[in-house]
Amino acid sequence: MTEKKENNPRIIIEGVTESGEVFRPSNWAERMSGKLSTFKKHHLQYSPLLQPSTKNGYACVILDPQLKESNPELYQSILKFAKMNKLKICDDQDNSNG
Length: 98
Known about the structure:
Elements: E1 11-17, H1 28-33, E2 38-40, E3 43-45, E4 50-55, E5 58-63, H2 67-70, H3 72-84, E6 87-91
């Protein structure tokens, strides 16, 4: 059974600052998501808790709130990184693209 996460939406950290500048390096989302990735059959597989993606043409990271329970230190470090770099943070229910 698949459970809806209406009360616990995923967090999206966009690769654009609050002032509208594109965040560099361009592969920051893949690098960050790599912290929970694994290799299987010579292919990189991202964790469903931390995945690179795109939103509005910008690289972004999708952070599942379950990461807060399974790895609270990583969860906090990712949010701290986003805030320090003034990246846009929203959830997957804000301005939904699909």
